[in-house]
Amino acid sequence: MHTIILPYFSEAEIDRYERILDHMLSMEAPKCEFEFLLSASPRTEPSDRLMQSASRIASARHLHCPTQVFGYPFGATAMFWDSMREVASDRHGTEGFALWMESDMCPVTADWLDRLDEQWRCSGDVLVMGCEVPDVYHNCQSKFRLYSPFRARPIKKKKWISRHINGGACYRRDLVHQVSHEYQDGIFDVRLGDLLREQGGYSSTPAIAFSTLDRLDKDLRDPDKVLLHGYLQDKDSFLTACITGEAVSPPPPTERRVFFGRFTVRAKAHPSEPMLAAILKAKDPELPALKIVERLPQSRTETATASVSSSNTSLQAKAA
After folding, report:
1. Exposure winner among 85, 162, 198, 320, fewest CB in 10 A?
2. Could you tell me the sign of the dihedral formed by the alpha carbons of 182, 135, 212, 26, in that order?
């Protein structure tokens, strides 16, 4: 049994999930067994209309997250662990995964859940399966000049992002019992990344991937990608493009500034857009295979990468 977790905190989120659920309903029903967990923010009442939409596809249940932590990213982290505690305590046991599916993630193939199910079974004893974010560095100038004030300041490489699995991923159902409280503090995917680098136990798959409106056409044609995450995109436009298969160009976000009594309009970029561009540039070529890092004893800090050739062969054949 798999559990698809839909976390929401506003009516706009519910609207987007209804569109995603309508899209899922138009696809062929998955062969694997699954359910929905509708996780509402402590500040949001559980949505009856979201329950009605989800129940058309599979069994669904509400969770009104109890932890009173708000704001991004720590409010989302609190909702994540509330949801994982709920999944770990239910009657379905530890078989299968819990997919943390945010409202800017959209299935793009009819067999998307069956493909994830097959890859999860091939991954063995892992805690997380999803889109791997690599180590990302950026160049920064030193604050100190050498010898002469006229000499250019030296350029240093600084780590911007540490390698981890992006939060929109598949998690072991009893994850909350597998992770110590030390790693449940802080932003959930970053702290889990710290744990997985030390102890292993994850699977990186090209089936779940970041995408943007600019590269969506290419990603939709990629047979290895089944679930796209439009990180930092206009969410409604991204969903429309995924569902219809047609590129959408949303108007750029703008801000108005007063300059000597006149308004000037400037495009306002999200502060993390350079980070996303660096992630997409730094990622290794995505092969149609799983990269499985086995779980190691806690006393060891090095991870060993294992390729499962037999499972990769079957996955490549199915993708073809």
Report:
1. 320
2. negative
Asked if 104 and 233 touch (Cβ cutoff 8 Å), the reply is: yes
In this structure, what token pair is assigned to residue 138?
Answer: 């950026």
Q: Are 82 and 39 a contacting pair, CB within 8 Å?
A: yes
Instruction: Report CA-CA distances (Å) from 192 to 3, 147, 197, 202, 300.
Output: 20, 44, 9, 10, 17
CA–CA distance, 100 with 120 (Å, rounded to integer) = 14
Q: What is the pLDDT of residues 176-200, one digit of tens each?
A: 999 999 999 888 999 999 999 889 9
CA separation for the pair 27, 113 (Å, rounded): 11
Averaged confidence pLDDT in the chain: 82
pTM for the full predicted model: 0.81
Distance CA 309, CA 261 (A): 67
Length, in residues, of the chain: 320
Q: Which residue has the higher pLDDT, 60 or 91?
A: 60
Domain ranges of the chain: 2-129+166-252+267-319
Is the pLDDT at 310 greater than 50? The verdict is no
CATH T-level assignment (fold) for domain 2-129+166-252+267-319: Spore Coat Polysaccharide Biosynthesis Protein SpsA; Chain A (3.90.550)
Residue 303 CA to residue 294 CA, distance in Å, equals 7
Closest among 92, 107, 279 to 172, alpha carbons compared: 92
CA-wise closest residue to 80 among 2, 8, 182, 163: 8
Host H or E run for residue 23:
helix 11-25
- Kindly report, residue by residue over 238-288, the tens digit of the pLDDT: 999 999 987 666 556 555 555 555 556 555 666 567 777 777 777 766 667
pLDDT band at 93 (very low <50, low <70, confident <90, very high): confident
Spatial CB neighbours of 58, under 8 Å, sequence gap ≥ 6: 34, 35, 36
